[in-house]
User: Which sequence fits this backbone?
């Protein structure tokens, strides 16, 4: 049987300006981010075979379409690339229609079971799940009560809600200190067992029921955030969607906005700028912003600013930055802020402001804000400080300040060697090696020393 050349794929590769080797490299990066160990790496010969008409197997079409989507700054589907997709583990938009308690049960079991987790981690980040459901869905979720349960089910009271909230804070502080790769399994175990029982329990009144669903939603969000930080992007997305559904069932607009903000943050980092802007706009819409506290409003708004900047809307981004500064300035100790905002202060605002300025083309302003973030970041936030330093080094290198960048990146390695388990911070080490590669043969001592340290670190954690 004669294969027909895949002209669609060839055209998209040409539009991207990629050679076969560059396409394979981009593919492998997406696969590595999603921990697709079953698919493994590919070489330029694989891409050549696909252009020649061979159909890739498993999740490969989705991985390549995601890589091209990032490059071309728009969504490219496997079908548009001329691929047929069969038996690929992805939920897409259907995920929003699954009941949150069913989703929690299925997701938690898959995450904890060694055999089933392979299927979960072999999935890819889905742009279909970024399309939020319509208003009717939100209204239905908010008025849906817990199903009737037998009297022997566990009774749940305010103390149980407080326990979930306290443990969420403890896990969140551990995440900020050590990174998302440390302790998430214990969090999922608690969510899957104790919290799942609470959600199926009986409540003294509707207020307690909603409070428990909010607490569970925040814990699911944290599991998603930790997975995102550890570069488990498909896993993170599933938990974010679950968290939104739990928050919607609780009729908790500020928490919903907080989770949508996290989804926008992830989409920005992965290069899906239009979807990120849509999500960030949704996070600041209506009561999600209006009923949030000042500190949380600042967080929502600054990520919206990043989304605007990434889509070329510089003036709107600048206005959003000013609004975020005003919101944070209005935060007061007398105002009770939700526990989930404990980390967002001057250093966090400076970090996100720097990212916005960087994406707006203001490199010098970005360097100033990254430095401000590093200077004001407390010792309890080692992971985030390492990520900020990584971004600072990359921005300095882009401006031609090679020695400054090497000095900054040396601080990243110092932090990583102290026991940070973070895929985002680890990616900073990968990026620094890529960015210094053109200078390896120029005999610059700082470059040689940094490159050797980075290579040794990555060999240890591989």
Assistant:
């Amino acid at each position: 049987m004669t294969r027909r050349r895949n002209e669609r794929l060839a055209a998209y590769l040409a539009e991207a300006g990629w050679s076969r080797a560059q396409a394979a490299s981009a593919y492998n990066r997406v696969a590595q981010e999603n921990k697709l160990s079953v698919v493994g790496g590919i070489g330029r010969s694989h891409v050549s075979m696909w252009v020649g008409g061979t159909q890739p197997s498993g999740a490969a079409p989705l991985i390549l379409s995601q890589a091209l989507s990032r490059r071309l700054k728009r969504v490219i589907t496997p079908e548009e690339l001329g691929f047929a997709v069969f038996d690929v583990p992805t939920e897409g938009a259907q995920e929003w229609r699954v009941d949150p308690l069913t989703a929690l049960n299925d997701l938690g079991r898959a995450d904890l079971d060694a055999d089933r987790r392979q299927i979960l981690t072999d999935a890819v980040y889905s742009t279909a799940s970024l399309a939020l459901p319509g208003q009717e869905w939100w209204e239905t979720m908010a008025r849906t009560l817990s199903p009737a349960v037998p009297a022997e089910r566990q009774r749940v009271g305010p103390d149980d809600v407080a326990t979930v909230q306290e443990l969420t804070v403890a896990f969140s502080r551990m995440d900020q200190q050590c990174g998302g790769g440390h302790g998430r399994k214990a969090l999922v175990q608690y969510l899957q067992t104790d919290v799942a029982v609470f959600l199926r329990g009986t409540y003294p009144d509707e207020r307690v029921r909603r409070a428990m669903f909010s607490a569970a939603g925040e814990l699911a969000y944290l599991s998603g955030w930790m997975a995102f930080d550890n570069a488990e992007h498909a896993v993170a997305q599933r938990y974010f969607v679950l968290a939104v559904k739990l928050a919607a069932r609780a009729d908790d607009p500020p928490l919903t906005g907080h989770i949508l903000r996290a989804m926008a943050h992830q989409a920005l980092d992965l290069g899906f700028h239009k979807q990120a802007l849509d999500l960030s706009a949704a996070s600041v819409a209506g009561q999600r912003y209006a009923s949030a506290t000042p500190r949380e409003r600042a967080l929502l708004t600054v990520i919206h600013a990043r989304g605007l900047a990434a889509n070329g809307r510089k003036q709107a981004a600048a206005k959003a930055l000013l609004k975020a500064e005003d919101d944070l300035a209005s935060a007061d100790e007398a105002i009770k802020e939700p526990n989930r905002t404990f980390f967002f202060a001057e250093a966090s605002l400076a970090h996100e402001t720097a990212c916005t300025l960087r994406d707006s083309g203001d490199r010098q302003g970005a360097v100033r804000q990254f430095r401000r973030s590093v200077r004001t970041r407390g010792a309890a936030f080692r992971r985030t400080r390492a990520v900020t330093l990584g971004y600072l080094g990359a921005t300095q290198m882009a401006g031609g300040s090679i020695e400054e960048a090497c000095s900054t990146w040396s601080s990243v390695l110092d932090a990583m060697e102290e026991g940070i388990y973070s895929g985002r911070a680890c990616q900073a080490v990968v990026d620094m090696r890529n960015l210094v590669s053109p200078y390896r043969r120029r005999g610059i001592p700082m470059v040689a020393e940094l490159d050797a340290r980075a290579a040794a670190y990555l060999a240890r954690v591989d």
Remarks:
- Residues 267 and 305 are 14 Å apart (CA to CA).
- The first helix runs from residue 7 to 16.
- The mean pLDDT is 88.
